[in-house]
Amino acid sequence: MNTQSPIGVFDSGVGGLTVVKEIMRQLPGESMVYFGDTARVPYGSKSKKTVLKYSRQIVKFLQTKEVKAIVVACNTASALALPEIKQEIDIPIMGVVEPGAKMAAESTKTNNIGIIGTESTIKSGIYSKFLRNINPDITVVARACPLFVPLVEEGLLEDRITDDVIGRYLHELKEYGIDSLILGCTHYPLIRNAISRYMGPEVNLINPAYETAKSLKVMLTEQKLLNQSGEQAHYEYYVSDGVDKFRTFAAQVLPCDVEQTMVIDIESY
Questions:
Q1: What per-residue string of b and e applies to 81-99 under the rule 16 or more CB within 10 Å gives b?
Q2: What pLDDT, in 10s, does the model give residues 197-231?
Q3: Higher pLDDT residue, 181 or 249?
């Protein structure tokens, strides 16, 4: 492993590309290997045992690519699998939950913070735990929004259907007077504008993808793994199924073309 080794990034599907986008923007010198588990998405409705099994398989695959660090770009896997995996591997690994929670705690003025995410992420209580460890006076209001992921993956980013679903899920949060809302799923930043319109300008939306890229830069610097060679970064993309759909989605999210995407048998790892 050296500073020019790539960073491994994985997600249950395509949503983790929002994290990849932020890493590209904030760490343009870093190469990446991305894996999207598109055959087994979504993770949000699966048990901890299943998510841990899937995450271990993906980490084994990424290790074959000699990555120097791993980003778990999935809130559900960060909540359910990351603590165990941290104890099992000897390379730096981080998730998206802690950076998002830290920023929300720093930015809130009322100590009333909302969290939206998948059913598993909300049920795990992981964001609430991090927030209250930082500041016990914080009040957390959480809401599972399972329909947001399929709406995003169908490309309905600016659509009346999406607006209607947002209203149905988030009307309770407006009543609690929150001033910060954590977008606790990597898909959700793609409907950030619609969520912001509904919640209003007084609610600050926290994008864990952005905060994760910032934290990754700090971690790589501290571990002396930051790539400062000046060579052009390269990116590899792997999925467990559905190459065409992945590439179509990636074209909407990433600032560069995804020239090649390979399917791998993740069950073999």
A1: bbeebeeeeebbbbbbbbb
A2: 999 999 999 999 999 999 999 999 999 999 998 89
A3: 181
Q: Phi/psi at 30 (nearest 5 deg)?
A: -95, 130
CB-based contact 96:163 (threshold 8 Å): no
Nearest to 261 by CA among 23, 95, 19, 14: 14
For residue 185, CA distances in Å to 44, 46, 206, 236 come to 9, 15, 11, 23
Across the beta sheet with 69-72, the strand order is 93-95, 69-72, 7-11, 32-36, 235-239, 261-263
- Give the total residue count for the chain: 269
Q: What is the DSSP letter of 191?
A: G
pTM for the full predicted model: 0.90
C-alpha to C-alpha distance for 158 and 141, rounded to whole angstroms:
26
CA distance 113 to 80: 22
β-pair partners for 7: 32, 69
C-alpha closest to that of 179 among 97, 259, 104, 83: 104
Q: Express each pLDDT in 82-131 by its tens digit.
A: 999 999 999 999 999 999 999 999 999 999 999 999 888 899 899 999 99
Task: List, in order of start, the domains of the chain with CATH numbers.
Answer: 7-95+210-268 (3.40.50.1860), 97-208 (3.40.50.1860)
Is 180 in contact with 206 (CB distance < 8 Å)?
yes
Pair of tokens at residue 124: 């795990």
**Which residues are tagged catalytic?**
74, 185
Query: What pLDDT, on a 0 to 100 scale, did the predictor assign at position 41?
Result: 86
Residues with Cβ within 8 Å of 25's Cβ and at least 6 positions away in sequence, in order, are 213, 255
> Mean pLDDT, to the nearest integer, of 182-197?
94
For residue range 43-62, list pLDDT tens digits in order. Answer: 888 999 999 999 999 999 99
